[in-house]
Amino acid sequence: MALISETSDDVSNGSDPNKNPEDLHKKPQEEEEENQNEKPKEEEQVENLAPIRRRHIPLILIERTVALIRICHYPRLSLLSRTFLNVISSEHLFVTRSLLGLTEPVLYALITLPPFTAPSWFILHRSNMSLRLSRISSLPPMSPGCTAVTIGHKIYVMGGRNGLNQPVNTVIVIDCRFHKWENLQSMKRERCFAASGVIDGKIYVVGGRKKRYEDWVEVFDVENGVWETVPGLCCYLASSSGVFPIHVVLDNKIYILDGQHCLAYDPRLRRWDNWGPESPQRHYWYTCSCVVDDLLYTIVPQWYLAGSLIVVYDPRDMVWRPVKGVDHLPSFFYVESKMSSFGGKLVLLGWHESQNSCGHDSEKIVVCVEVALGRSEDGDIWGKVESTSPVHSSFRWPSIDISRTVTV
């Protein structure tokens, strides 16, 4: 018992019960000298330790992780390391995203900003929860008057005019995963402001030149990379110049807005349909339009259709109906704007001039409006404005030439 009591006292006084009895009677100075003599041995042991190895993260783990992240964050992720850059720049990453069902729509706009005469591609992306249009510097300027279609993650750009105001037959394809481009086989004929569309996996180009029986329509076999002219009758009501900047693909036909008439080319039957200004097809169709789920949406001036600004056309019953719930949109959309299908909803791009009280040049603000769509039980189409955001500004008059959505 006495031993236990003494040991307890020693411990309580800060002594070490494991010390030898002789050590307990050493003076503090002697202990300090011994400790100083032991320090080099401890440092020597630390120096002899094997270096800590950096563990490399397997590429497949990085790829699976990056695949889950939205594409708008890829530019910043690529700055983390060369490994991340290589993963983001690999085609295999996008194959993985596709297999996981993680593809997403991305909006591209072809915009002309004077005094530069050649239009350039811009991409709409979110930055800190706000929408912005950013120019894609890796893509060259396009030819004014070109036409464009999208297939998957690619944009095909065809025709236009050169600096001498002469139509061209050039064709390029843009890979929107990496913003790389290459030339494809040229069209058989030069075309400017032609109509275009994708039907059954093939690209059709209509007009863009004077009406002629043998070459007014061309078709591009995407798989084989070959252009062929499609002989057939020209629509007698079509403009002789063949300038068709407003067109959509609807019901497997290329619908063309041509002045007071509406034309439709059916590639499967190689047949033309045409309707006059009083027809249901032409009655409400205006320049700002697009197709969502095989329905044609367009904006009409408020004075023309009281109570609604957006209307929708169903080709099955050939009837226009108002989109309910959308009563107020910026006035600039009546003049110069573009509408696109974006993940099942409408995205509108237009611009207005900001007010400037200082007498200086006022800014031209490009604005993006997102409209969600839905259908009620009774069949009515409803819309809801989700956001209205300024996405670009300049002191020049912008021209929004083309707006297309790509799946990446």
From TrEMBL:
Disordered as annotated region, ranges: 1-47
Composition bias type Basic and acidic residues, residue spans: 19-29
Location of the FKB95-like N-terminal Kelch domain: 121-391
InterPro entries reported in the protein's UniProt record: F-box/kelch-repeat_ARATH, Kelch-typ_b-propeller, Kelch_1, Kelch_FKB95
Signal sequence region: none
Annotated transmembrane regions: none
SMART domains: Kelch
One Pfam family matching this protein: Kelch_FKB95
Name of the protein described by the UniProt record: F-box/kelch-repeat protein At2g29800 isoform X1
Provenance organism: Camelina sativa
